[in-house]
Amino acid sequence: MRKLGLWVAVFLLVGFSAAPFLWSVVTSLKPRDEVFAVPPTYLPRGATLDNYAGVFEQRPFARYLLNSLVVAAGSTLLALCAGAPAAYALARLRLRGAGLVEKGILLFALVPPAVLLVPLVSAARGAGLANSYAGLVLVHAALNLPLVVWMLASFFRRIPSELEDAARVDGFSRLGILARIVLPVSAPAVAAAGVLAFIFSWNEFTISLVLMSRDEMRTVPVGIAMLSGASAYEIPWGRIQAAVVMTTLPVVAAVLALQRRIVSGLTAGAVKE
Amino acid sequence: MLLGLVLAVPLGISLSQGAGRFGELVSDPMLLKVAGTTGAFAAASVSLEILLGLLFALVLHRTFRLRGWVRAVALLPWALPTAVMAMSWRWIFNDTYGVANDLPLRLGLLREPIAWLGRPATAFAALVAADVWKTTPFVTLILLAGLQSIPRDLHEAMEVDGAGPVRRFFWITLPMLRPAIAVALTFRLIQALGIFDLVWVMTGGGPADSTKTVSLYVYDHAFRYLDGGYGAALTCAAAAAFFAVAAGAGALARGRARA
Question: DSSP letter at A40?
Fold first, then answer.
């Protein structure tokens, strides 16, 4: 009996989490007249990929995808390259004030992008980085650094230091140890941090909206938010849901594939205090 | 460090740009209105998220088959792009074709369809619903980590003393979970107070500015009316207020644990 209660709860939880996404999938597969059927049909009578093809006709959706891919890959790489040495320093070198620095980093991870919108955009525009990949890559990398440093530092601490001591005896430098020993050993944690940084950049809307104002530089979330028909009464909902599915599917796949690493990586230092 | 430079320098610039304009904040009636909306939104969504997140965490803490997969699915809404899923929610709350009308109509809970996003009260409720869906997983994750750090023998000891599951929850689980709840509360309050993308896409702050939040207001001034100085002043004031509220709430939740 208690087992049954648990399964009902699990079922409700899964339903709650998956339903909106599944509804987008169902809508995106319907032919045009069925999308706008009243009352709506919950199992599509006919499935078609017309909406998916349509997305690419109406707007430069392929271009949005490319922009998002470039920015997300670039900023993830930058955040990892800058974050790994910082995390290593925090984890291993006994610097004074390291604890304070780590708390400060966490504080930055808290700030919602909207708060940073005005200062960041005015700084980026001042530096001539508006509507350029470099500008958004830099901003996303900066926003991602706190999480990357925090995740990597908490993982580095769990690596036994004997390995590194041995390497130092053999004459490796600090950076050599990081590159040749620590990073290979912690590849799973680096991968998890990288995936999260990539997802964050792929999803980010607020800064991208303002910084990338030219249509051909827009990222996918902004492009989708701007998708609409000639008039308010002609919003192409089928195509929009197709775009939603195409944008979210990679994220869904990544989360399902890496769920254990992501969950443990995120919660490692969350409630230590 | 690099991170400090990229984030702190712009904030400093903002402070200097907005410095002369702080006086205007006090006499801005619209600011009072959007601050009220933002506060109500944060209070409603975060309290629902903590409650629901606690329930989810308790379920996911139990052992059952396929738990890894269920956890991944439970985490999903949080990992999906907010602005993109806001488009899904707009479709769900569509007045003519939306599921939010069809399901209650079929179940007999509604007599006629509601223009969810067309009226202030229902638009607000729709935003809260979408935000709860989107960010409850985050709370679940933090509280789940908290649950896992509670030593098992505490429960066993009280079970031997004859305490039922309900008493064990209120005497052990909840007090031990306080620090985790404080963390979740602080994080979520700051994020909810700064909400932008969800509102921008779902309602655009409408109808009639009724769901406009502080961040949308800042955006309007800085990028639509091109009044960067006032936008900067608003930003500084908002950042200070967000942190104060969240830190206060966090300290409150944590402080009671010691008593």
Answer: P
In this predicted model, what pLDDT tens digit does every residue of B97-121 receive, in sequence order?
A: 888 888 888 887 877 888 888 888 8
- Per-residue pLDDT of B140-163, as tens digits, reads 988 988 888 888 887 778 778 877
CATH code assigned at A171: 1.10.3720.10
Residue type, A252: V
Nearest Cα of chain B lies from the Cα of A92 at a distance, in angstroms, of 17
Using 50, 70 and 90 to split pLDDT, how confident is the model at A71? Answer: very high
Closest approach of chain B CAs to the CA of A184, in angstroms? 24
Chain B residues in contact with A6 by the CB 8 A cut-off are 59, 62, 64
Residue A167 at interface with chain B, using a CB cutoff of 8 Å: no
Statement to judge: residues A82 and A34 lie in one domain:
no
Q: What is the ipTM for the molecules in this complex?
A: 0.82
DSSP one-letter code for A110:
H
Does residue B14 sit within a domain?
no
Provide the token pair at B55: 């329930």
Interface test with B, best of A6, A7, A118, A195 (most B CBs within 10 A): A118
| Structural domain includes residue A53 | no
Structural domain boundaries, residue B147: 29-258
- Tell me the backbone φ, ψ of residue A110, rounded to 5 degrees: -75, -30
pLDDT the model gives residue A231: 46
Number of domains in chain B: 1
CB B205 within 8 A of CB B191: no
